[in-house]
Amino acid sequence: MSVSAEAPPVPDPDLPGPPPAAGSPSRPQSARPLVVTGGIAACAAAASGLAVLTTLTAIGWITAPHVGIGNGLGGVLRTAALLWLVAHHVGVSVHGAGHISMLPLGLVLLPGALLVMAGRWVVRAGSVTRLRHVGYAAVALALPYTLLAAALALASRTAVAAPSLLQAIIASFLLALVAGGLGAARGLAPWSRLAGLLPPRPRSIVMGMGGAVVILTAVGAVLAAGSLAVHLPEVKLASDALAPGTGGAVLLLLAQLAYAPNAIIWAVAYTLGPGFAFGAGTVVAPTGSALGAVPVFPMLAALPSGAHPGGPGWVPVAVLAMPYLAGIFAGLVTVRIAPTPVIEAAPLWGFAAGAAAGVLAGVAAAFAGGSLGDGRLASVGPSGFGVGLVAILEIGVTAALTAAAANWLILRRAANRRAHDGSAPGSDFPGPVLAAPGVVDETDTAGGHRIYVNPWAAHEEGPADD
Questions:
Q1: Of 70, 87, 105, 75, whose CA–CA distance to 149 is shortest?
Q2: pLDDT for the residue 127
Q3: What letters, b where the CB count within 10 A reaches 16 and e where it falls short, cover 374-400?
């Protein structure tokens, strides 16, 4: 696909907003084919990520040459390429240890941010002006990016470590497609205008799901930080046992920051109830923990290890109540954005928002765990299926009940206002039936015509419609 360099960009009619003023000057913009811009952007994003990781690897090789990075510049480059693949959540098979898939999710932010920027550049350089063409821009970026990832997976293989070629292809393509697509869409319009394109019902479900996810993430972050603060002496002892030195301490801090998203997701699994494991036959849950030997890593010293939860007795109760709070918020947001006069439909939409948040929690839990070899630590982290199922039940059912109650209150208040105005059904008012502002009619089976009142109509500008 290519865009003519002769004609100026045409605004997307699907995007809300005023049309350009008549007679406004416009300059024609040169445009490259999307195949070319996608390839250039993919190379730039991959090269930028590799440059950052090569710098960090070189610092580690200089400050701590005993870590097994390799000899000379070739070893540094191969290790940096391996870290670049790990940043895309590509598992590595290590000789003598087994498959390593317990990877830091924080590293995904580096290629993700670069791909978002690349997607925005593809839209601008390719003069993409239609929202429906964003998918083409994302694919044009993802395909060459996947080829680069596959080449790096083959080039970084050594006798000690071998990344998975299949995972490199799948993970890099999905990350480039999603992050590049988001960046391309953002290059056309702000998020607020893009969200306005959604109908009220899907927008209410998405916003309800987002509200629940935000609450779960905030609770997980607070819980992880609190556990780290409580076990600060143990964390310090683990850091002293490693004796990393000045440069090594900086790299150790960066490694812990990279694993911070994993810790937050583990804390979310903890609040949901299933908890997580750190090896075969272990469990860390609000009702108690049973742990075996743990590797010497400062963040792992914050894991609760007692058979019974420590602290006041109300703490586990408050922790387990957080998912229900997220479900309540999801139900309120869903109905507040798009209430419905169909009473039995409100719980359905509330459950849809809560279930979507539960599915997202399960997917995040599946990516936050993995294996640390073929031995006892072959199972580390939460179970994606278990966390997702419990989250759907807890958040989804709570959101459904909350949505039903909130929707009933909204309709009751609207009926009271109509009765107060003398336009309630059954009165002598001969006109059409008035619906509450913002109510989405799911069936439109009411007799006669239905008028939706816009409370902001008096403030809108523009000529009146005769």
A1: 87
A2: 81
A3: eeebbbbbbbbebbbbbbbbbbbbbbb
- How far apart (Å, rounded) are the C-alpha atoms in residues 85 and 271? 31
Please name the residues in contact with 387: beta carbons below 8 A apart, sequence gap of 6 or more.
Answer: 268, 269, 272, 274, 361, 362, 365
* 273-283 pLDDT per residue, tens: 898 998 888 88
pTM (predicted TM-score): 0.81
pLDDT for 437: 57
Phi-psi category of 229—alpha, beta or left, where left has phi over 0 and alpha has psi -120 to 50?
Answer: alpha
Alpha-carbon distance of 463 to 466, in angstroms, equals 9
Tokens describing residue 40:
């250039």
Residue 177: closest CA among 135, 239, 235: 135
Contact 101, 378 (CB under 8 A): no
User: Which pLDDT score, from 0 to 100, does residue 211 have?
Assistant: 94
Q: What's the CA gap between 214 and 249, in Å, rounded?
A: 32
Helix or strand or coil: residue 126?
Answer: coil
pLDDT of residue 6: 37
Task: Compute the residue count for the chain.
Answer: 466
Low-confidence ranges of the chain (pLDDT < 50): 1-10, 13, 16-28, 424-434, 445-450, 452, 456, 460-466
Contact 364, 436 (CB under 8 A): no
Could you tell me the two tokens for 54? 């090569």
CA-wise closest residue to 156 among 353, 331, 148: 148
For residue 364, give the H/E element and its range.
helix 345-368
What is the SS3 assignment for 23?
A: coil
- Please provide residue 120's backbone torsions phi and psi, each rounded to the nearest 5 degrees: -65, -40
Q: Which residues pair with 92 in a beta bridge?
A: 100, 163
Q: What is the pLDDT of residue 254?
A: 87
Query: How far apart are alpha carbons 38 and 126 in whole angstroms?
Result: 9
Q: Calculate helix-pair angle for 345-368, 200-230, nearest 10 degrees.
A: 40
- Structure confidence at residue 133 (pLDDT): 84
Helices 384-391 and 260-272 pack at an angle, to 10 degrees, of 50
Counting beta carbons within 10 angstroms of the beta carbon of residue 265, is it exposed (0 to 12), middle (13 to 18) or buried (19 or more)? buried
Other CB atoms within a 10 A radius of the CB of residue 193 amount to 12
| pLDDT for 330 | 95
pLDDT score for 31: 62
Dihedral of alpha carbons 408, 409, 411, 412, sign = positive
| Beta-ladder partners of 276 | 284
**Cβ atoms of 168 and 88 closer than 8 Å:** yes
Cα of first residue to Cα of last residue in the chain, in angstroms, is 43
* Cβ neighbours around 200 below 10 Å, total: 14
Per-residue tokens: 325: 């709070």
Dig out the tokens for 39 from the structure: 């390839």
Alpha carbon distance 328, 43 (integer Å): 45
